[in-house]
Amino acid sequence: MSGQPQDDCLFCKIAEGHIPATIVRETETTVAFRDINPQAPTHVLVIPRAHYENAAELAAAEPTIAADVLREAKAVAEEDKLESYRVVFNTGSGAGQTVWHAHAHVLGGRGLHWPPG
Ligand code: AMP
Ligand code: ZN
User: Fold this and answer.
1) What is the structure's pLDDT at 117?
2) 3-state secondary structure at position 59
3) Hey, where are the domains in the chain?
């Protein structure tokens, strides 16, 4: 069911502490951890503890938790002392989504080109 932990979901397992990750921040509703394959000096994923397939589904079902994810993205950037940063929600396989649990990529610490590839 939407929002409930999924047995086959990597990020649910990280949120539950069943798979290790380099966690940088935790709140009641979110977990932030370093991406295992970083694309920038700061590359942190912020996830809701609740399982939704993507950011839009999260926002539709749990708008306050979607806002928590954005607030935590800013907190991660502040902790890493980033003046500028990018928050990305890949949505759909054509956009590069590979994990079907909503997550914000927080990227910074190098020049970020616009538009992205
Ligand atoms: P996306 O491709 O937007 O779905 O993002 C998934 C991200 O999860 C990728 O950037 C992966 O490098 C990252 N990732 C996959 N497995 C792990 C893991 N065990 N710990 C941390 N990050 C991971
Ligand atoms: Zn999940």
Assistant:
1) 82
2) helix
3) 10-108
